[in-house]
Design brief:
Shape: elongated
Radius of gyration: 33 Å
CATH architecture of one domain: 2-Layer Sandwich
Distance between the termini: 104 Å
Number of strands: 3
Helix content: 25-40%
Largest sheet: 3 strands, antiparallel
Strand content: 5-15%
Number of helices: 3
CATH topology of one domain: Double Stranded RNA Binding Domain
Strand order of the largest sheet: 1-2-3
Order of helices and strands: HEEEHH
Length: 127
Amino acid sequence: MSSRADATAALVAKQVQEHAPTWFVMWSPWRRRFDAWECSAPDRCRTVHGRTATELWNRMRQVDLDLRRTLLRDAAPPAPGEAGHPGPPDPVAPGHVPGPRGRLPSRQEHVPGPPSPTEAPSAEERT
């Protein structure tokens, strides 16, 4: 390849890089191929290469799919009985009713009390 072809290939690598932000993409003039490293997490970095940009792109997409499948499998909650799975909640002591969640302690709710003796009974109450 000429230096002009190498410059064009380097431009193509830059364009691929722009469309795949979690990848580092470059043209290797010595190897005459595109190289790409998946860089979203160091513990799972993958390397792919291709003679053409299309070949490289297809391999990058395959690695992305494989990594997503791995992440989904690893993120699945453990089955009941496996280590790390929380057991059932502790029983509540008899006579102890836990308070409702999400209510602020400073917020007082008005609970209507019994009617005062000075109030006149309603028509429903008289019958």
